[in-house]
Amino acid sequence: GQQLNQSPQSMFIQEGEDVSMNCTSSSIFNTWLWYKQDPGEGPVLLIALYKAGELTSNGRLTAQFGITRKDSFLNISASIPSDVGIYFCAGQLLGTSYGKLTFGQGTILTVHP
Amino acid sequence: DSGVTQTPKHLITATGQRVTLRCSPRSGDLSVYWYQQSLDQGLQFLIQYYNGEERAKGNILERFSAQQFPDLHSELNLSSLELGDSALYFCASRADSHTGELFFGEGSRLTVL
User: Fold this and answer.
1) What are the strands of the beta sheet with A19-24, ordered from one edge?
2) What's the rounded Cα separation, in Å, for the pair B106 and B4?
3) 3-class SS at B84?
4) Is any Cβ of chain B less than 8 angstroms from the Cβ of A19?
5) How many CA atoms lie within 13 A of A7 on its CB side?
6) Looking at chain A, which residue has its C-alpha nearest residue B49?
7) What's the confidence (pLDDT) of residue A1?
């Protein structure tokens, strides 16, 4: 099936540092979504992107829809301990139905106080 | 709280058995999606229903089936269970709009022994 390459696989950072992660693919997407998943919980939607080049913020989170429509980036500024969790990118391939998402493998974020 | 309700939260059963997972979407959402999350495959789309009708299929095994009822709740039936079916099963719903934003339930953790 289609693949989304999400990197890095894991990050260990100090509280207060900024974090960047990204997803790339060889396929074109018309929607990019970023989710966070805590242990024992379902993924929670953080940011949704719908246009190439779009830059959207949600508090300390900023995400961008790549110009080529094949990638997306998520930045977290001034990290805090509650940012710990697994972050997933998800994309909807061009021509597929709404909600049929392809997920990246996740980035495990650990924040040291 | 996403508004999507899933039961049971945990389920332990034996190989060869059959189980049913239940999902109630957010109030007003007509679309229901089922996803499987396993360690080796990540989050994979299984199937989508819209207002009682199947709309899209993903990597769903023939041993698995689903349906959506008139009250919009959905059930995922897993039969002839194998060890490899052990996973988290998520239900998600989507507002009836031209966006791909999915809201996930907390999942049902299935363990097949």
Assistant:
1) A5-7, A19-24, A71-76, A61-65, A55-58
2) 8
3) helix
4) no
5) 4
6) A99
7) 52
Which chain A residues are Cβ-neighbours of B4 within 8 angstroms? 42
CB contact (8 A) between residue B100 and residue A48: yes
Structure tokens at A102: 């392809």
Q: CA-CA distance, A68 to A55, in Å (whole number)?
A: 14
**Separation in Å, CA of A74 to nearest CA in chain B:** 17
Q: How far is A23 from chain B (nearest CA, A)?
A: 15
Q: What contacts 24+ positions apart, CB below 8 Å, involve A58-62?
A: A61/A34
Helix (H, G, I), strand (E, B) or coil at B83: helix
B23 interfacial to chain A (CB closer than 8 Å) = no
Q: What is the pLDDT of residue B19?
A: 98
Pick the closest to residue B66 from B40, B92, B41 (CA basis): B92
Q: Do the chains contact at A100 and B48, CB–CB below 8 Å? A: yes
> Residue A44 CB: number of other CB atoms within 10 A?
14
- Report the C-alpha gap between B95 and B85 in whole angstroms: 29
Going by the DSSP 8-state scheme, the letter that residue B48 receives in this structure is E
Residue with tokens 């194998």: B82
Residue with tokens 């709309």: B55
Question: In this structure, which amino acid lies at residue A11?
Answer: M
pLDDT digits (tens, 9 = 90+) for A7-62: 999 999 999 999 999 999 999 999 999 999 998 899 999 999 999 999 999 999 99
Q: Are A7 and A89 in contact (CB under 8 A)?
A: no
Nearest-CB residue to B45 (from A35, A40, A100)? A100
